[in-house]
Model the fold of this input.
Amino acid sequence: MKTKQHLIIALDKITVDRALEIAEQLSGKVWGFKVNDLLVKEGPSIIKKLKPYGRVFADPKLHDIPNTVANSVSVLESAGADLITVHSSGGPSMLEAAAKSCGQSKILAVTVLTSLSPKECQSVYLKKPALLVPDFVKLAKDSGVAGVVCSPKEIESVRSLVPEDFIVLTPGIRPAWYQKTDDQSRTSTPSVALEAGSNLLVIGRPVCEDNNPLAAVKKIEKELA
Ligand code: C5P
Done:
């Protein structure tokens, strides 16, 4: 099953009970589960609660001085997080501190948020994503982190810069059957993202907002087959 190998469900804007219910339904059918607002609300205990159902991706997108980032990474690692995000723009010392303190977890460096349009990216970073993402990827690779988070639009250029075992994780994935528009801007379908070389696909709302998350995952599996 491709969803078991590659799909991470973002458990956003739902209660702990609903998150655990979805995790139980999808256990063994997806790679794992991502927590963000639930991590803020519940603390690292949510990681321990989800672990029986699959791998857990803690997505706090840390961005602070190296010592503070290392402290938070250690807390999340102790709770059992498999993946932890930090922002590439925190710079080389911060990325190195995260990589050194992550123990059994893997650090992923967020390049440019998938919600940022090229125009917004230019106004914030003074560069378009096409030029900025490769800079952040080289920085992440040289700092010893395990992988990066990027938009599916940048997968091919990122892949050309990193070794095969470097993780390329992509949010902003929209199944062909999902027609709603939202804050995501640089998106692709699951199959296009996998073909381009993404290892892990993050999908949130198309699955969690469905009354039947299992049926939504089955539709994604069918689309990938
Ligand atoms: O609901 P949706 O599929 O848009 O969820 C995408 C998830 O991926 C969200 O939890 C968001 O925080 C996360 N993410 C992202 N863009 C990044 C990094 C993480 O959308 N660059």
In short: The chain has a mean pLDDT of 96. The domain at 2-224 is CATH 3.20.20.70 (TIM Barrel).
